[in-house]
Amino acid sequence: MGKTLAYKILEDHLLEGEMIPGKEITIKMDQTLTQDSTGTMVYLQLEAMEIDKVKTEISVAYIDHNTLQTGFENADDHAFIESVAKRHGVLFSKPGNGICHQLHLENYGKPGKTLLGSDSHTPTGGGLGMIAIGAGGLDVAVAMAKGTYSLNVPRVVGVKLTGKLRPWVSAKDVILKVLKELSVKGGVGKIIEYHGEGVRSLSVTDRATITNMGAELGATTSVFPSDENTREYLRCQGREKDFIPLAADEDAVYDEHLEIDLDELEPLAAMPHSPDNVDSIKNIGEIKVDQVAIGSCTNSSYTDLMKVASILKGKKVHPEVSLVISPGSSKIMTKMAENGALADIIGAGARVIENACGPCIGMGQSPKSGAVSLRTFNRNFKGRSGTNDAMVYLVSPETAAISAIKGVLTDGRTTGDTLETPDMPDFVPNDNFVVYPEGCNTDNTKVEMGPNIKPFPRNKKLEGDLKATVCIHAGDNITTDDIMPSDSRLLPYRSNVPHLSNYCFEKIDKDFAERCKKAGSCAITGGDNYGQGSSREHAALAPLHLGVKFVLAKSFARIHRSNLINSGILPLVFVDPADYDTIEVGDELILENAPEQVMALEVTVRNLTKNREYKLRGNFSDLERAMLLAGGKINHIKEGQ
Ligand code: MIC
Ligand code: SF4
């Protein structure tokens, strides 16, 4: 029986366990990446593990999320990360160099390697034929300390691509189509593997756009074969030596199938407020646009921005539109300065901002009240732009640029204009933004700790009965942006969980934190796909600080479920989803003899207020059980030392 590419790479890295879907395996992690907003926790945890050098082939600490530095807090975080990176042999990418995923693709990603990143969009590396997985910070800290990562073996969805994309239709439309078909929870527990002759027509940056937004499917990761396009991409980056060809066997067997004819695809948009709320631009119609934002780890590559520049050249941004562009990396910005494309963009009236995440994570450029904002980003959750009533649509760079000129959402094909895909130039290697840790070690490098950096919260050993008051009864598809909002006001406090926890669930229930403080011991209930989106473990750490003991939901998103377990909070799934409807805020719940129940297949929680009994499942692996009993991952590691 032929093998999928995903399983070939996983088997190549297998240290423990068997490749049986749903079973836990431990794999060797070749590379890790962190970014600043999850990074402070990662490096606090790494320090707590008291290791010397990291065990990976390469680990990189990027600064790209909070680069505004409106107070001392961010600069202190950056200095802290840089100092810990030096102590443990981690490369440090200074702010201004670009967005972690774009930079990792350009400089360090290699076909056939594994990568774990403390950011949900780490699967961008799948565009290069890597198994690249997003995880909570603590998992990444452990991957650095031990060079390993444990996960449940995913099933593999084969997406067969045929045909070739037409002008004005792009990689973003491919992934929007997949999202329309599979939904934001369609990828949970799965790897999305692309194959078929259509793959050949997609560049590595096109592929990276597609694997990047596999995160929005909830998938463990997404992967493309490594072929001549991969070799060409690596050659342009001065790294042809890193190329190896990789593909699934001809007769590979996939667990599920999807087929997309690229010839038939049309420009699409994800409408407010979910990446899977997709329709064609033709059907949505010419809605008036107030803001257009181009960039983010999804669509800020050289080829994306060159297409944008060619659309804008000699034209004028519509008077009622604010167009803002954030390039993916310093290399891309440099090239576009050299070849004149930057002048074309600025000449048209676009605002060019720093090579960073910027508006994608609400760090500036919040649109005006009630605005329609077209973004080439990957998430349009309500309020994420920083403006709660903004209507954010996710579109391709081509659609964004032409709409910025016309002032209305526009299907570029209706303009009759031609649009060529630019060739990739040879980039001149430049590592002036990178600080190498050579010569530094734990003895000669001091940790720089600013006053805003507080210790990360630790749970206690699981003991006795867990009695808890329901402090929020949340709905379906709750995002980690809902649980722990992040914007220019809150991002500076990612290293200060006690402060951050005051804003937990703020956007959907502003009284949550106070209610928890009153209750002392609390529970959360949620619907389907609870905790989708970002990898931020703050969405588990803030509830931990507020006294949350367990979360009962219809189903969980992968990374958040792991983050809860890592924090010693029990994620439990209703056996009968109808039980969810019988719960209200204020109900008193009890999970008797918690340590014994955690070891069983089914858990019983009693609702003392409603006099009901609920059956729930944890589906915990042995390792997860051990972590829950110890009160979280760090405690479990310490016990073993
Ligand atoms: C995001 O896109 O939501 C983020 C900000 O990059 C997060 C990480 C974080 O919350 O710091 C992610 O995707 O994991
Ligand atoms: Fe940064 Fe946005 Fe990508 Fe997250 S999704 S890593 S905030 S650019």
What does this structure look like?
29% of the residues lie in helices and 19% in strands. The chain starts with a helix and ends with a helix. A hairpin with a 7-residue loop joins β13 and β14. The strands form six sheets. It has a seven-stranded mixed barrel. A six-stranded mixed β-sheet has the order 7-6-3-4-5-20. A five-stranded parallel β-sheet has the order 17-16-15-18-19, with helices on one face. It has 641 residues and is of the alpha/beta class. Bound molecules: alpha-methylisocitric acid (MIC) and iron/sulfur cluster. Iron/sulfur cluster (SF4) is lined by residues 65, 99, 119, 121, 296-297, 357, 360-361, 377-378.
Structural class: alpha/beta
Radius of gyration over all CA atoms, rounded? 23 Å
Strand order of the largest sheet: 21-22-23-24-27-26-25
Query: How would you state the average pLDDT, rounded?
Result: 97
Summarize the main sheet: 7 strands, mixed, barrel
Low-confidence stretches: none
Q: Name the helicity range.
A: 25-40%
Number of strands: 27
Give the termini separation: 42 Å
Instruction: Work out the helix count.
Output: 21
Can you give me a brief rundown of this structure?
With 641 residues, the chain is of the alpha/beta class. Helix content is 29%, strand content 19%.
Summarize this structure as a short list of keywords or feature phrases.
single chain; alpha/beta; six-stranded mixed sheet; 29% helix; binds alpha-methylisocitric acid; binds iron/sulfur cluster
